[in-house]
Amino acid sequence: KAIVFGDEKDGAKSFHLAEVLKRHQVKIHEVKADFTSDGKNFKKGFSYVVPMNQKNQRLVKAMFDVRTQFTDSLFYDVSAWTFNHAFGVDYAENISLSKAGNEITDLKMNIGGASSKSDYGYLMSWNEYYTPKALNAFLQKGLRAKVSMKNFKNGGNSYEYGTIFIPVQNQKLNAAELYQFLNKVADESHVKITGVSTGLNDGIDLGSNNFSAIKKPKVAMLVGSGIVSYDSGEIWHLFDQRFDMHLTRLDMNYFSRVDLSKYTHIIIPSSNIDKVAIEKLRIWVKNGGVLVGYKNTAKWLASNKMINLEFDSAKIDTIKNVSFESKSLKSGAQYIGGAIFEADLDRSHPINFGYKNDKIALFRNSTLFIKADKKSYNNPIQYTSNPLLSGYISKENAKVIKNTVPFKVQKSGSGKVIVFTDNTNFRAFWFGTNKLLMNTIFFGDKM
Q: Of 372, 346, 323, nearest to 439 (Cα)?
């Protein structure tokens, strides 16, 4: 038997997981032909088969292990590393070896490029991992680009929410130059761009108001005193090393002297900063800025009335039959060192553009729980009623986390305040949720 993993619309995430396996001398095979298992499609060139009758089978089992029961309740670090959840790929076990093609000895990422020259425009699906890198290159070049707010079909091909449209007309480059540039960027980003001959679609037309113009972002991040350095480092790595995007780091030591008007977005990693910055940020947001806060920053923003949030917490004061000697163990068990939880997605919301499934696996190492809004459309990411996928959570916290929300966005003046309770960029390893942050950068003003 074998296991199989992949994403029929995102070859890059699958490639990077295969890359980890190859680095640990695990034998992997290509998929012989497209097939379906457990309702999931595994496409040749986008999926990989891992035979279990090999030397490193114990390592493979450990990498994809799912465990929710533990003999101990105290964890120094992460309690779950289930790789298919971390990379956000589809996964199936007990697959027949007949599904395996040739063994892959020279692993390569899928080739990108523009399909053909167009005199009308180009479409780029937002599903691939490196689409933010490509879109940023377009915008930094001064090109006009729009994002689809609805699903549609063009030329017999289906396109989902978040598809990028680059028109040929009214660009800085002529038609030939535009094609050459798009083809070069798509090749470097390993994404496919399709030239279209018409703007008339089955669904919404390319010239309709359902395509919204994307502004060129200029992003800054707070660092220094009061900011968790691990979290800021992970965010910097995502921008700089993965997507080749410039990220200005604003040190809290001189934040009061910085002109914020030049920035479209400001990211605040998990933090515990004083109130000196709050009024400056409040004015900047009201003037159109998009503020993105992580983890403890959500509480800081709520306490300073920049976003309305209602929090919940575990009721550990009602725990019975615990001796004085054991009380520290019981309180320590309430800490979430790192586990994986399942959430439902509303894929029509811009925060979820590029995700093909209606559920997502989120890494969490905090006990920050935000209550859901009474209006369902304000909960585009919401934990399920039984969200634990892998790892440890106490019974008390398990009662609280169900149906809470790890993401909130609210309008403030002309701008937006966005918060995440979870780390979407954990240790540069959690590929599956990296696009959530990128969606706040390119589509935050549309949320």
A: 346
Name the residue with higher pLDDT: 47 or 79: 47
Contact yes or no for 8/41 (Cβ under 8 A): yes
Dist CA 382 CA 385 (whole Å): 9
Is the Cβ–Cβ distance between 372 and 404 less than 8 Å? yes
pTM above 0.85, yes or no: yes
With the C-alpha atoms ordered 434, 440, 446, 447, is the resulting torsion angle positive or negative?
positive
Cα–Cα nearest to 403, from 424, 374, 372, 359: 372
E strand residue ranges, 164-225: 164-167, 192-196, 211-213, 219-223
Q: Which residue has the tokens 């998009």?
A: 290
Contacts of 273 (CB under 8 A, 6+ apart): 222, 225, 226, 227, 252, 300
Average pLDDT of 271-295? 92
256-to-22, 276, 284 alpha-carbon distances in Å? 48, 8, 13
Q: What is the pLDDT of residue 371?
A: 98
| DSSP character at residue 196 | E
> What confidence score (pLDDT) does residue 347 get?
98
Mean pLDDT of all residues in the chain?
Answer: 93
Q: What is the pLDDT of residue 153?
A: 94
- Could you say which DSSP state residue 355 is in? -
For helices 131-140 and 175-189, the axis angle rounded to 10 degrees is 150
Distance CA 438, CA 398 (A): 29
